[in-house]
Amino acid sequence: MQNLETLQRKIWILENSNLSGAKILKSNFSASNFYSSHLENITINNSSLNDTNLNGCNLKNATINNSSIQKSELNRVVLCYANILHSNLYNSKFNHAKMSEIVIDQTIMGAAVLIGANLKGAIMTNTSLNTANFENANLENTNLNNSVINFVKFSNANLTNASIKDSDTFKTTLFLKSLKLIEVNLIQLKDMYILNNNNTRLIINRKIEKRLKQEKQLSSNNDTFKLTELDIHILENSQ
Asked: How far is CA 115 from CA 81, 137, 182, in A?
C-alpha cells in the first residue's frame, strides 16, 4: 500500500474501502467518510481526520501519532491493540467501540463519548478526559494513571481493578448501583461523588474513609486506605 502523503483534498468518500497497512502521513482527510472500512495496521501521522465518519471501521493494531481526529464518529469501531499517542480526539464518539488492550498516551479526549465501549486492559495514561462519558463501559483492569478525569461520568461502568493513581478526579461521578472497585486507594478518590439510588451525594473524604476502615477492615499504609472489594451497600445509607 502506497503512502498517502500531503493530500489536501477536503472530502474523501472511502466507504467500505480496504486500506489495511496504509500510511497516512501529513494528510488532510477532514470531513471524509471511511464508514465500515478495513484500516487494520494503518499508520496515521501528523494528519487531520476531524469531523470524519469512521463508524464501523476496523482499526485493529492501528498507530495514530500527533494527529487530530476531533468531533469524529468512531462508533462500533475496532481499536484493539491500537496505539494513540500525542493526538487530539476531543469530542469524538466511541460508543460501543472495541478498544481492549489499546494504548492511549498524552492525548486529548475531553468530552469524548464512550458509552458501552469495551476498554478492558486499556492503558490511558497522561490523557485529558475532562467531561468524558463512560456510561456502561467496561474499564476492567484499565490504567488511567496520571490522567485528568474531572467531571467524568462512569454510570454503570465496570471499574474492577481499574487504576487512577496520581490522576485528577475533581467532581467525577460514580454510581453506586453497579460500582465495582477492587484494590483502589481511597485517597485517590477524594472529591469524587458517589450517588446512591436516591441521587444523594456522598463525597469521599477522611470521615468516610475512617468509617469504611472500621466496617470493612481496610488496610492503611501511610494514611492511604485501600479498598478490597468495596461492598457498595454499606455506602448507600451513609451521610
From this structure: 19, 6, 22
CB-based contacts of 221, cutoff 8 Å, min separation 6 = none
Query: Taking the mean position of all CA atoms in its chain, how far away is CA 5?
Result: 30
In one-letter notation, the amino acid at residue 216 is K
pTM exceeds cut of 0.85: no
115: left (phi over 0), alpha (psi -120 to 50) or beta: beta
Question: What tens digit of pLDDT does each residue of 167-208 get?
Answer: 776 666 554 444 444 444 444 454 444 444 444 444 444 444
| DSSP structural state of residue 35 | T
Give, as one character, the DSSP assignment of residue 187.
G
**pLDDT digit string, tens, across residues 29-44:** 999 999 999 999 999 9
| Distance from C-alpha of 91 to C-alpha of 89, rounded to nearest angstrom | 6
39 grid coordinates: 484500516
33, 57 Cβ separation under 8 angstroms? no
Residue with cell 453506586: 176
**62 and 89 in contact (C-beta within 8 Å)?**
no
CA atoms within 13 A on the CB side of 3: 9
Q: What are the strands of the beta sheet with 193-195, ordered from one edge?
A: 173-175, 193-195, 201-203
- Would the pLDDT of 217 be above 50? no
CA angle 189, 190, 191 (to 5 degrees): 110
C-alpha distances (whole Å) from 4 to each of 35, 38, 59, 196 are: 18, 16, 17, 52
